[in-house]
Amino acid sequence: MLYYLAPIIIIAAIILWVILVYNGLVAMKNQVENAWRQIDVQLKRRHDLIPNLVNTVKGAMEFERDTLTKVIEARSKAVGAATIAEKGMAENMLTQALGKLFALVESYPDLKSNKNILQLQEELTSTENRISFARQFYNDLTALFNTRQQTFPAVLIAGGFGFKAAEFFQVVETERQTPVVDLKLRP
Q1: Is the pLDDT of residue 186 over 60?
Q2: Would residue 185 count as lying in a domain?
Q3: Which residue range forms the structural domain that includes residue 126?
Q4: Residue 101 — pLDDT band, cuts 50, 70, 90?
Q5: Which sign does the torsion angle of CA 139, 136, 26, 84 carry?
Q6: Which residue has the higher pLDDT, 89 or 57?
Q7: CB proximity list for 68: less than 8 A, separation 6 or greater
Q8: How confident is the model over 52-81, as a mean pLDDT?
Q9: Band of the pLDDT at 96, cuts 50, 70, 90?
Q10: DSSP labels for the chain?
């Protein structure tokens, strides 16, 4: 009688194992997607703050139209980016443009003391910190998810059920370089 139950127990154990591995991969995939949505929320907040900042400094920085235009263009590209890779590149360009804008604000005494600008800078800095933490969390979950898919025996299940590696939110190589900012005072 045990001879008949042994194959049934083995098959049931294999089915249970497949179910557990599959459910674990689904749970991790959902965690990665949720982590990306958290980044997206912070990016939206950042995108909403930028027009207020640009409008606040626009009048005082008449000679810096090029910098303001670059910030606006970078924001538009960031808002319109579709994939994680595109968003990563666009957000890095926006970060560089904002860095140049903040450096220029420092060279205008009226702007440095403007409460609205100081508040917007503080909000953007806070948002940048949130984005940084959310990126790190997302990339940590992405690494775990990708590793789990690529290790044996889960690799047998992941490939069979169509799981794909998640994209990392990467820093573009130009972002790794220290930007050069020209702080010459304009007439």
Answers
A1: no
A2: no
A3: 12-176
A4: confident
A5: negative
A6: 89
A7: 54, 57, 58, 61, 101
A8: 79
A9: confident
A10: -HHHHHHHHHHHHHHHHHHHHHHHHHHHHHHHHHHHHHHHHHHHHHHHHHHHHHHHHHTTTGGGHHHHHHHHHHHHHHHH--SHHHHHHHHHHHHHHHHHHHHHHHT-HHHHT-HHHHHHHHHHHHHHHHHHHHHHHHHHHHHHHHHHHHSTTHHHHHHHTT--PPPP-PPPHHHHSPPP---PPP-
pLDDT for 20-33, tens place per residue? Answer: 999 999 999 999 99
Quick check: is 23 in a domain? yes
In a domain, 168, yes or no: yes
Position 185 scores a pLDDT of 42
Q: What is the CATH number of the domain that holds 106?
A: 1.20.1440.20
Domain count, the chain: 1
Per-residue model confidence (pLDDT) at position 140: 94
Q: Are 78 and 95 in contact (CB under 8 A)?
A: no
With respect to residue 2, please indicate whether it lies within any of the assigned structural domains: no
User: CA end-to-end span of the chain, whole Å?
Assistant: 97
